Amino acid sequence: MNAHARRTGTVAYVGSRTTAAREGRGNGIEVYDVSARGDAWTPLQTVDLDNPTFLATDHDRRFLYAVHGDLDYVSAFRIDPDTGLLSALGRQDTGGRNPAHLAVDPTNRFLVVANHSSGSIASLPLLADGRLGPVRDLLELPGEPGPHRADQTGSRPHHVPFSPDGRFVVVPDKGLDRLFTLTLESDSGKLGLRRSVATREFAGPRHIAFHPRLPYAYTVDELRSTVTAYRWDAREGALEAAQTLPSTAPTATGDSRGGEIAVSPDGRFVYASNRSGAGDSSPGGPGPDSITVFAVDDGTLTPVGRASAEGVRPRFFCLAPDGGRMYVANERSHSVVAFDIDAGTGLPHPNGTVVRTGSPVCVLFG
Q1: pLDDT of residue 305
Q2: What are 318-350's pLDDT values in tens digits?
Q3: How far apart are the first and last CA of the chain?
Q4: What Cα–Cα distance (Å) separates residue 30 from each residue in 15, 81, 218, 336, 338?
Q5: CB 3.0 to 4.6 Å from 156: which of 5, 175, 253, 265, for a disulfide?
Q6: How far is CA 258 from the centre of its chain?
């Protein structure tokens, strides 16, 4: 770990691809001091790690956790409250291969991890000092694989967010064309299967985002590059499909994969990223990819338009808490690009801030 400076504003943690197998050019987790206007990113620290591909903090923002894509463990770090810098606390096996996403439960007692390549969900206890205990429970997801011969050979969970009320873990499974609702016992860490619902064949649901007020949730479907709106029964933990729309332009003829999805904090818009190419092994591009904007009506969606991602392979993006800015991590063009959001249309417009960093795939603000 190399610390270079002290922070003066907000801290951003950027996870990256680092291994040759993923054509990674990153170094691990890059820590930046971000100015109040968001236009100046000053490097503070580089934490050398293999493929820290998704990051999360505990609810007190005292500790940071990272899953390591293509590997089999999760790492823990202490966050210095004054500088935002990270110090290593160790790592734990996740009980499976290629952990792709992680989330801390509402009680701050357990970490839930999606083991993408081995089709399982793990729970690990969070110890008082921020370290991770050994896997407490491991749940394999049941079902028949979808028809895609390469990407649907078995269960492929890619996301494990908690529902807005914290009662359920909702898991899009790209390999089984299915969404699962799980429970987590806050005392024991035991995982339970509550419900599941099938998607369209060949959808490959990847990530899900909940509306802040309406009983709806939205998935970005990786294999079809579609977005599906679901009615959400918070009492039962049940999802019911209401609408599916293409995320790419109607005239698009090339291969595309959905990447990330988000709902604006005011609930007026849904955003989805589109990655050119036929999977992670294809180069994508050469032109920039896109972010699609949908307006939210009564919960269902109406397409608004698309904006250039200003780069290739936007695996991840996130919105500022007030919804006025978007940050897009373009994995293959090695940049984090900042956009201002038009308050009327919801469309993002690049504001000139571009952070050059190797193979970024996650951005987390401290």
Answers
A1: 98
A2: 999 999 999 999 999 999 999 999 999 999 999
A3: 18
A4: 7, 17, 30, 12, 17
A5: 175
A6: 12
